[in-house]
Amino acid sequence: MKENMTHISAEVTMVTSFQDADPMGVVYHGNYFRFFEEARRILMTKIFDRYQDLMDSGYVWPVIDTRVKYIKPIPFHHQIRVSATLTEWENRVRVDYVIYDAQTGQRMTKAHTVQVAVSTDSGEMCFVSPTIFTDKVETWHAVNK
């Protein structure tokens, strides 16, 4: 990230569902990625006017790496707040996440995902993020100083 630039962040509040839970009544570890994806979708709509614009950019953005630290179990029918913050974008896209208990503010989970751009025309992975993405991030920073 370039110096003196603020991170772009977004949050979503949601209530965990019965189908999110395992037999012990806590959210199954694989379902956390659905929460991360929703927060990331909202984050990307801050950068692109429509999430569809990112999808129409000529690139797909597969997740190539992830890390999750499960701090406190999340029960079903529990209100959570999920934050997503863009922390890298020049060579790859890294988004950091924190899941909080929406009532107490207690941190329950932290994670990150790393994505890279892959050209839909050639199927080749890009070693730098395409300008269609970096220009949008730079514009967001210019407007939101």
Q: Can you offer a commentary on this structure?
A:
Helices cover 23% and strands 33% of the residues. It is α+β, with helices and mostly antiparallel strands and 145 residues long. The protein has a five-stranded antiparallel β-sheet with strand order 1-4-5-6-3. A two-stranded antiparallel sheet has the order 2-7. The radius of gyration is 16 Å and the shape is globular. The model has no long low-confidence stretch (mean pLDDT 92).
- Separation, N- and C-terminal Cα atoms: 15 Å
Number of folding domains? 1
What is the CATH H-level superfamily? Hotdog Thioesterase
Let me know the largest β-sheet: 5 strands, antiparallel
> Count of DSSP helices?
3
Overall geometric form: globular
Strand ordering within the main sheet: 1-4-5-6-3
Q: Using DSSP, what is the number of strands?
A: 7
User: Low-confidence spans: pLDDT under 50, at least 5 residues?
Assistant: none
What's the pLDDT, averaged over the residues?
92
* Beta-strand content estimate: 25-35%
CATH class: Alpha Beta
Going by helix content, strand content and strand pairing, the class is alpha+beta
Estimated helix fraction: 10-25%
In short:
The chain is of the alpha+beta class and 145 residues long.
Outline the secondary-structure elements.
Layout: E1 8-15, H1 32-47, H2 51-55, E2 59-60, E3 63-70, E4 79-88, E5 93-101, E6 107-115, E7 118-119, H3 131-143
Antiparallel strand pairs: 1-4, 2-7, 3-6, 4-5, 5-6
